[in-house]
């Protein structure tokens, strides 16, 4: 009974009830009379609470606190609490105030004696007490939480808001019963009915046989929420109006109320409504019996059975067994006569809650069916077996989960808009259970869960928790252990962690029999898994955190010991358990190993998640250099995946780098600081901070030993900046130095190999300087190198730079070859930044309207992401596309933007070309002077290639070439 001793986390409804102005009452009634009144009040209130299976938790002077849903979970705890409250208020001779709230509490017995009161802690209780104090005399106030859970079942009214601590809450007053009696009713707005054609056909076939005079019994069985009631409802809708339908239902708290579902059948047959007085109800039964031309004495038995007045007083003298037999007879005759010659469907819902008397009646009643046109249609949850199994005219429809297609249809109908990916993720989580599907979709739509739907909606939670709570203590402990181990777990590990007396395997087999678990076959290790992922989550959520941490710690230790030699093989499992244990620091090395493995699989997102988990553990530890070193190591490792996934300019990467540099500095780790600065340089550079970037790069060079690998990194950064600033000779020299110094296996902290990146970039400098052959060979060399190291991000970088080289050279076929591969790489690995390069260059290579769209989209993506480097170049490609497609005005405006971008951000290498292109839109004189100025700029940069283009245009306008440039 570990769970009960240690306490659990439960969804409950808490009811506080208090007598109004009791001290005044003592004066009024005198102490003796007062005592009697109070005594009666408590006796009646207790009866009401127990009737709905609540527990009185505490007596508080002239009132008490009661819990519904604990110690045993009830899926309808809120409804029970409100029913009990209405019952108490109606019976009390004194005025009471009642407050109810629903939510999560920690429930546990205090002391060793399990029979002592359960005590609930937390805000849920505080609010309930506060609502009680705020209630008007005679009123029942419920919180919005509670009201949401019982919506439709009661009539409620708004009342004045109530202050609780710092918050204002808006309670509702319960005025009486509402119109709803079940989760679904005809007239409700429901999701489209789907995926049950076969079952409907089966029911229709049974109805045809019934119509021929041979009654049938069909049970519809399935887990909670699988759609038993809905199937019955749709079937009845189709059958009516040719067929009469009579309906009765069992209630979750009705197992001790004899004849409950039968009374409802009779009430429906006789037209008795909820508002009818007992006298009127009795009269209606009598009228019905007469109308059906039955013996009037039958009415006495029925009224007696249902506790209605005016039964025959002589009955009291009879043997109860005789009374019962005659009552059964009377019910049978009434129901059969009601059917008459027209077929009738008698629907009895939720047989798993049936009272014993009603069950015995039905067992006998089915024997009469073969010769009357009555179809008994009963719904019940898996686990219940009806008393009539095995007769030729009885059968059972066991509902299966809905197909993925049907599931998606339900989810899509609830989600506004066409979020297909979201719909299928939810559909998967709901695993074919339409109730779960609807609730998950609603929670997602109303944003009560995050996108991944991490929390289980309360409505679903309640249903599952109630099932788990009904398990015997050993099975419950076993399912809790299983929940800690995960959706799927090995029997071996579970047995090692298990400390119960009963062998675990036997318990798991029982849970398998109850369909909580499934066994997975065909694996080397014996493995069990939860049939439904939500069951695991609910079992897990129900445990106290301390207990979960303890079990996770034990599981981690077991894996660590039994797999000592291959610990890092199991790093994901160890990281999972230790990070949830009482000592999460033990998870850090395993999280790092797991993240590395994820990165090796190019699963950058996963790697980032694991690193972040490690980070949050480390950050919560005591400050000190040990802690700082650990944090630094994680930051160093997470930068590259962050860059690949979100791009250089992402704020998250920038924050990571700034923290990295600060930590490295405070720890005196110069090399780490230099590497971090190179990454920060890249981030600033891509943000378009060219001048800033150059300074950062120079700072690195000052930090590192000349000629070292790290000096290679610094030269790379300086080289890139210099090219961009239009200092081409200087830029090329640094890039070549970088490739030499950092040759071989040296990786930049941005996740690219230094020689690949430098060589690829040097190609641009070569081309601008008029060395076309060197440009092409550097481009090929970078791509070849990248292919040889088998790293997709590195290859993406080499291809992206290569595509620019091809564009500069106007080599359309090489461009389209490489750009296709680039786009494919970026989309299959989710690379952010170079994806946009691919789009623009691909767009440009199309040269038609479709290309414009691609380029525009990508340029806007870059801007939104804060990446402004090379913007003049990208805009000039777009302008070229626009001009080719006769959109001259747009082209000219785009070139104007490019000019501004170049000057604002010192992005100067492409400026001569932008000016040259812009001259095409000028008047003759202005054009000539703009071309001359472009030629001067190109010449000052040593940009032979761009200078030639200017000269060519000037020559076209009849002007001689400029003096030669000296690179
Ligand atoms: N085939 C279906 N297509 C669309 N929606 C469905 C389907 N079956 C059930 N639903 C919806 O799913 C929800 C749950 O269904 P229902 O109430 O019939 O389940 P149940 O099996 O009777 O559950 P319980 O055992 O709790 O009574 C309802 O809102 C219902 O409208
Ligand atoms: Mg149902």
Structural class: alpha/beta
How large is the share of residues in beta strands?
Answer: 5-15%
The total strand number stands at 18
Instruction: Please tell me what the overall shape is.
Output: elongated
Quaternary structure annotation: single chain
Mean pLDDT: 90
Contiguous uncertain segments of 5+ residues: 1-5, 112-117, 449-454
Q: What small molecules does the structure contain?
A: adenosine-5'-triphosphate, magnesium ion
Beginning-to-end CA distance, first to last residue:
86 Å
Largest β sheet strand count, sense and barrel closure: 8 strands, mixed
What percent of the residues sit in helical stretches (DSSP H or I)? 55-70%
Radius of gyration: 39 Å
Tally of separate helices? 42
Task: Provide an overview of this structure.
It is a single chain. The chain has 42 helices and 18 strands. With 967 residues, it is an alpha/beta fold. β13 (344-349), α13 (356-365) and β14 form a beta-alpha-beta unit. Strands 1, 2, 3, 4, 5, 6, 7 and 10 form an 8-stranded mixed β-sheet that branches. It has a 5-stranded parallel β-sheet with strand order 12-13-14-11-15, sandwiched between helices. The N and C termini lie far apart (86 Å). α32 packs antiparallel against α33 (772-789). The protein binds adenosine-5'-triphosphate and magnesium ion.
Key features of this structure:
967 residues, alpha/beta, 5-stranded parallel sheet, 42 helices, elongated, binds adenosine-5'-triphosphate
């Amino acid at each position: 009974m570990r769970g009960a001793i240690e306490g659990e986390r439960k969804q409950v409804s808490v009811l506080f009830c208090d007598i109004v102005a009791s001290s005044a009452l003592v004066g009024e009634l005198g102490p003796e009379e007062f005592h009697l009144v109070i005594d009666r009040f408590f006796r009646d209130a207790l009866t009401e609470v127990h009737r709905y299976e609540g527990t009185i938790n505490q007596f508080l002077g002239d009132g008490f606190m009661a819990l519904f849903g604990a110690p045993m979970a009830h899926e309808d705890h809120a409804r029970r609490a409100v029913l009990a409250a209405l019952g108490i208020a109606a019976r009390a001779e004194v005025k009471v105030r009642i407050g109810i709230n629903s939510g999560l509490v920690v429930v546990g017995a205090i002391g060793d004696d399990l029979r002592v009161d359960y005590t609930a802690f937390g805000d849920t209780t505080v609010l309930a007490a506060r609502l009680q104090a705020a209630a008007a005399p005679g009123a029942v106030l419920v919180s919005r939480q509670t009201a949401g859970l019982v919506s439709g079942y009661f009539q409620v009214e708004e009342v004045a808001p109530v202050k609780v601590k710092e918050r204002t809450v808006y309670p509702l007053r319960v005025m009486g019963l509402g119109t709803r009696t079940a989760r679904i009713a005809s007239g409700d707005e429901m999701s489209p009915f789907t995926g049950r054609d076969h079952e409907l056909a089966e029911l229709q076939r049974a109805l045809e046989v019934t119509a021929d005079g041979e009654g049938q019994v069909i049970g519809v069985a399935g887990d909670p929420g699988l759609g038993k009631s809905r199937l019955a409802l749709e079937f009845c809708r189709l059958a009516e109006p040719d067929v009469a339908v009579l309906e009765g239902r069992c209630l979750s708290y009705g197992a001790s109320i004899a004849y409950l579902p039968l009374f409802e059948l009779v009430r429906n047959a006789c037209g008795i409504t909820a508002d009818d007085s007992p006298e009127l109800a009795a009269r209606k039964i009598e009228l019905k019996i007469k109308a059906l031309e039955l013996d009037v004495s039958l009415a006495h038995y029925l009224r007696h059975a249902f506790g209605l007045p005016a039964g025959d007083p002589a009955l009291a003298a009879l043997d109860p067994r005789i009374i019962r037999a005659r009552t059964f007879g009377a019910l049978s005759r009434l129901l059969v006569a009601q059917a008459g010659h027209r077929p009738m469907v008698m629907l009895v819902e939720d047989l798993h809650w049936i009272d014993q008397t009603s069950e015995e009646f039905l067992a006998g009643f089915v024997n009469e069916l073969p010769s009357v046109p009555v179809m008994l249609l009963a719904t019940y949850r898996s686990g219940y077996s009806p008393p009539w199994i095995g007769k030729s005219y009885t059968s059972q429809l066991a509902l299966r989960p809905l197909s993925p297609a049907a599931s998606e249809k339900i989810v899509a109908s609830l989600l506004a808009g066409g979020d297909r990916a979201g719909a299928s993720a939810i559909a998967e989580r709901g695993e074919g259970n339409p109730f779960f599907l609807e609730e998950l979709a609603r929670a997602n739509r109303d944003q009560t869960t995050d996108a991944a739907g991490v929390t289980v909606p309360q409505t679903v939670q309640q249903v599952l928790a109630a099932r788990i709570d009904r398990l015997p203590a050993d099975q419950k402990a076993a399912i809790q252990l299983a929940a800690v181990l995960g959706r799927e777990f090995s029997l071996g590990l579970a047995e090692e962690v298990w400390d119960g007396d009963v062998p675990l395997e036997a318990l798991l087999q029982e849970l398998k029999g109850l369909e909580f678990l499934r066994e997975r076959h065909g694996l080397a290790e014996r493995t069990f898994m939860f049939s439904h992922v939500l069951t695991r989550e609910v079992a897990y959520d129900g445990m106290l955190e301390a207990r979960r941490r303890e079990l996770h710690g034990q599981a981690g230790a077991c894996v660590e010991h039994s797999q000592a030699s291959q610990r890092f093989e199991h790093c994901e499992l160890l990281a999972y358990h230790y990070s949830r244990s009482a000592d999460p620091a033990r998870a850090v090395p395993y999280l790092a190993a797991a993240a590395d493995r994820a990165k090796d699989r190019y699963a950058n997102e996963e790697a980032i998640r694991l690193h972040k988990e490690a980070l949050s553990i480390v950050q919560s530890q005591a400050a000190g250099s040990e802690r700082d070193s650990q944090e630094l190591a994680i930051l160093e490792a997470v930068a590259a995946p962050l860059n690949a996934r979100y791009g250089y300019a992402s704020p998250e990467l920038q924050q990571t780098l700034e923290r990295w540099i600060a930590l490295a500095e405070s720890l005196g780790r110069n090399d780490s600081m230099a590497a971090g600065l190179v990454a920060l340089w890249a981030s600033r550079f891509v943000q378009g901070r060219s001048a800033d970037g150059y300074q950062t790069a120079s700072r690195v060079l000052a930090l590192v030993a000349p000629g070292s690998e790290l000096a290679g990194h610094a030269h790379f950064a300086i080289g890139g900046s210099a090219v961009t600033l239009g200092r081409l000779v200087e830029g090329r020299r640094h890039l070549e130095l970088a490739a030499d110094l950092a040759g071989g296996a040296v990786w930049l902290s941005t996740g690219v190999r230094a020689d690949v990146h430098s060589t690829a970039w040097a190609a641009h400098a070569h081309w601008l300087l008029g060395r076309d052959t060197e440009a092409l060979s550097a481009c090929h060399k970078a791509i070849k190198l990248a292919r040889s190291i088998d790293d997709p991000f590195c290859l993406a970088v080499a291809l992206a730079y290569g595509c620019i080289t091809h564009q500069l050279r106007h080599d359309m076929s090489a461009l389209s070859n490489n750009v296709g591969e680039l786009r494919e790489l970026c989309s299959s690995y989710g690379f952010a930044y170079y994806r946009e390069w691919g789009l623009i260059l691909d767009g440009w290579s199309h040269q038609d309207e479709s290309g414009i769209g691609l380029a525009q989209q990508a340029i806007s993506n870059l801007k939104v992401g804060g990446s402004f480097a090379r913007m003049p170049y990208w805009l000039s490609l777009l302008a070229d596309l626009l001009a080719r497609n006769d959109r001259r005005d747009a082209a000219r405006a785009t070139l104007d933007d490019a000019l501004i971008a170049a000057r604002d951000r010192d992005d100067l290498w492409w400026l001569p070309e932008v000016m040259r292109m812009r001259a095409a839109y000028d008047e003759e004189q202005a054009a000539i002077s703009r071309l001359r100025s472009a030629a001067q700029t190109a010449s000052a940069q040593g940009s032979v290639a761009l200078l030639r283009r200017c000269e060519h245009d000037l020559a076209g306008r009849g002007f001689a070439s400029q003096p030669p440039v000296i690179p």
